[in-house]
Protein 1
Amino acid sequence: MNVHDSERLSGLLEAAGYVRAGGGEPDVVVFNTCAVRENADNRLYGNLGHLRPVKDGHPGMQIAVGGCLAQKDRDTIVKRAPWVDVVFGTHNIGSLPTLLERARVQSEAQVEIEESLVTFPSTLPTRRESPYAAWVSISVGCNNTCTFCIVPSLRGKEKDRRPGEILAEVEALVAEGALEITLLGQNVNAYGSGFGALAAAPDDVRAMTEGGQSAFAGLLRACGGVEGLERVRFTSPHPKDFTDDVIAAMAETPNVMPSLHMPLQAGSDAVLRAMRRSYRQDRYLGIIEKVREAMPDAAITTDIIVGFPGETEADFEETLHVVREARFASAFTFQYSKRPGTPAATMDGQLPKQVVQERYERLIALQEEISWAENKKQLGRTLEVLVAEGEGRKDVATRRLSGRAPDNRLVHFGVPDEPVRPGDMVTVEVTYAAPHHLVADKPVLDVRRTRAGDAWEARQGGRDGQKGVSLGMPAIGRPAQADAPASGCSAAP
Ligand code: SF4
């Protein structure tokens, strides 16, 4: 979600006439901060400190700080770093160009933080980083209160975007060349809960819930009807709201990809209770079982926090148990660390670093073993890979290209004889499996040139200009007002 917010910030600035600095010294630097990750504030103030002499040597340069940390720290930022020109929050990212201008004219720092959303972020201009794969927000904010998470207090309550608007954006992206979209929300399965009583709901909302299905299941099926859209993904679902009709919609909608990222956070019921995550181990594993039944080839990934306050060795063993049972294709693993402002930060039972570290290493070792074993099952399989830009850091040295399989596994493959561009599709056979990627070193079986590849090619040379900025989506049926942009529910300390 932060990445998508940054696309909006770029789009806003480019629409206001700014151009990318390229290799030169920039006139404006914008930090889009995250308060979820560890040491976010240290990193921000460290970066601001490094920029101070740069700004001193570059009269007129402006520095802006936005995102969750700005929402949290507000004017503390200009107190600690008085050379910052603009501070804006999560609810008013659309104000950035105006605030930069005002700071310039008034020669004075501008701090503007809103308590609720000013403009639904999807109505803002967006500078999409990729012409072939795009993020689409379906909701913003979160109604949950996980005790380790700062997101709800900084991003606000969940507000859902109307399905008509979402589908209009998806169709517009596909018309521009996108083959893949990822639906974004803090808790995508809760999508629709904000629309109120169904009888009074607008037509596009009722259409999503036809036959009694959940609005998110309806949205997935509706994406299945968008011509030219080849891949649909979503992030993140919350296990508490995961309904069977979503599994059915995933399995029965051909362009919804067989991959699921579902945060576990902990395997122990006691820890889940302390985290205020209202599902339990058996429910989580039950969802996994149903997903595997409906989509045997689905790659399931997760987020896990180790060392939550009060976690005992027996609790941690429960996490290892779920990891063994679920056989995740991969997992984002985090060591718990306090986030000031969250209930967990003041809980009893904070664990010593060495205990957390030791458990963390055991978890990583187990997950690596499982990831590798699961990847080895892919050997010999033929996969269609969406060629990506910048996914394979060693591609030049290894003379390979990289992309994503339908289940989102990273695949490195040998350069085919015919030209291939990011956004094109190649068909390859997997010849080697590592824990975090697959390799296909036999000759590429097929290259399919796509509209997305054409769009990527057309964009080359337009990097520094206005090309690639799509106008904000018009709101349908209601004023362009909703809630705040959110950062992923993959949120973990
Ligand atoms: S972890 Fe996810 S579901 Fe829980 S409060 Fe944070 S954003 Fe919401």
Note: The two ends are 16 Å apart (CA to CA).
Protein 2
Amino acid sequence: MVTASDAPSAAPGEAGSRTLACRRAASNEEIQAYYAIRKKFFVDDQGLFEASDVEPIDHDPRTIHIVAVCSPPGDVIGVVRCYPGADGVWFGGRLAVLQEYRASRLVVGRALVRTAEEMVREQGVKIFLGHIQLPTVRFFEHIGWVKVGDPQEYAGRLHQLMRPGWSRKPRLR
Ligand SMILES: CC(C)(COP(=O)(O)OP(=O)(O)OC[C@H]1O[C@@H](n2cnc3c(N)ncnc32)[C@H](O)[C@@H]1OP(=O)(O)O)[C@@H](O)C(=O)NCCC(=O)NCCS
């Protein structure tokens, strides 16, 4: 679990401080909040999917749905998903942080990505990839991911395949 605080000099839980915890969505409420954030960004805001962005892989028991929880008040403020592909390769995706928490001292996006990386590495995964929207490539480069090949169409839009520095390079087909 990756944690952060927006008041580094204050102990977690101290009045005026907020802490962040990134972990696998546990309760029904967290899972509902998780899907609501995905729908807001990828269906309503971006129009990447028409009515729902939920896919069969979301029902695969191996898939990991990760939430970023800000306390107080204990709300889900960001999400990311990790799922297995073929040949032991895992993918990360559906990364989103609520607008009002972006670029905050909680560094929510980076904490979510690091949690995803930790969780797949714990399972012995050697190749971890993401189909990254082109405007988000610089964010991923900033946190240590590198491009794999050239941009390609994914979900109807150009995406850049990327991997974290520790991941082996995939064989491109
Ligand atoms: C991309 C996104 C997840 C980033 O989340 P965030 O919480 O704002 O990012 P963080 O605060 O953790 O940023 C970590 C670092 O990356 C930098 N950064 C953030 N967004 C960046 C961007 N678009 N380009 C370059 N650097 C960026 C931050 O300044 C910070 O830098 P620092 O280490 O020097 O402090 C968020 O903007 C988002 O939800 N976007 C909409 C959904 C989306 O497009 N998802 C990606 C689909 S591929």
Note: The beta strands are 2-5, 19-24, 64-71, 75-84, 90-97, 128-133, 145-147, 152-154, 157-164.
Protein 3
Amino acid sequence: MSGLVLLASDRRVRAGIWTKFDLWLSHRHGFKCPGKVVIRDAGAKGRCAVTSVESEPAILDAHPRDRDQLLDHFNWVRGETERLAAPLSAEDQVIQSMPDASPTKWHRAHVTWFFETMILRAFKADYIPLDEHYRFLFNSYYDAVGARHPRPERGLLTRPSAAKVKAYRDYVDGAMRGFIGHADADTWEEAAPLIALGLHHEQQHQELMLTDILHAFFHNSMAPAYQAYRSSSAYKAPELRWFDYHGGLVEIGHDGTEFAFDNEGPRHSVHLAPFRLASRLVTNGEWKEFMTDHGYGRPELWLSDGWAAVGEHGWESPLYWRQVDGEWLAMSLSGLQQINDQAPVCHVSFYEADAYARWAGKRLPREGEWEVFAREQPVTGNFVGSGLLRTAPATGDAPDRPEQMFGDVWEWTQSPYAPYPGFKAGPGAVGEYNGKFMANQFVLRGGACVTPEGHTRATYRNFFYPAMRWIFAGVRLADDQDGETP
Ligand SMILES: [Fe+2]
């Protein structure tokens, strides 16, 4: 029997027999989530024994004051990384399938390096590093910290072993717990926001661990599975509907006390022309219609750079689709599986999303358009805690608002990733976190089925280059209100 932790649902969750899908679905529908539900596979008909309900640490403030709360959160996030890495062997954890992806072992070490570098070396005078080589090996892109191992060569690092990386994590965890408990008040004032940043940074890498191992497994003809296949809903995606927004001057961006990355602010005014937003994500079935209509072969549908990418890479379907005996299958974290036509399409680039929208006679949303709808909703959806690790059909149970705004896939917007008015990167190494990437990328919103619960929010701005497809990205359509009435 294997234990499994889900984030789920509401006060109805008690020890007893539930299906995993019951738990996930009730969470998805916006019930308040009181905590982590620990369940144990019961083996019969996909039902599970709920063995306990644990309290999940609250969402962090940007400037955490309560040391016990921060310590709880620290333990939870660090534990989640190890839980997600646990199904992967030491051999799995070494592989780097392309320069944009990193080995699992490197992710586990790098997030540890972040705490060691930004907190322990910076604030704890008597801290003695476990190994000085790690400063070079596990720096990602921080020029202010110094030279680093080349990113495309992370897969060459057979040493330190996975076991040594675990020892490194334990060593830094011990030092961090001591620091959180005993740092003097002035030091705590300065360091606490950086610890909050480090925890959200680690959650970003948790998502990348799953994203990157899927890419590695895709290149193995055995189509390995990270986890066993789990059934999801048999819902039929509801008919696409449209939600109108009157437009006008609106404020977007973060200005609260809860944690947000620097690129989410300052809050500022933007003008939105009247527009409409689709009620759900574009499905695999709809994407097949685009393919059947020769969407990948019609230059008039594509941006010039997108059409060049089609030619250069030979794109004819989403990244992980394979045709076997005339049927399209898709590589997933549960191996090669049949494609659910009702579930949202995933692993498409910005260029593909844009071409699909043009084929459909619509367009991609601007990030401000997405945000004014998203902020009216609870941040619930098909995140990593659902245990599916793939997209699931919309249910049609929320007739008054767009569905799937959070979870399932990151949604490409047509907004370039640029600084908001008044944005200034902070001083020092952490100033390099987001600001220096504000060129030639596009904003994605919402979070995906591999995103940790509590990590995303309505103002969250993810960003990737327009040809990238290995991320869990999909499509929601938008339209101008002076367009043809759908
Ligand atoms: Fe990082």
Note: Residues 1-21, 25-35, 38-55 have pLDDT under 50 and may be disordered.
